[in-house]
Amino acid sequence: MNKVVMYCSAVCPFCTRAEALLNQRGASEIEKIRIDTDPKQRELMMEKTQRRTVPQIYIGQTHVGGYDDLAALDRAGGLVPLLQGSV
Question: Helices (DSSP H) in 1-87: which residue ranges?
Answer without folding.
Answer: 13-24, 39-49, 67-75, 79-84
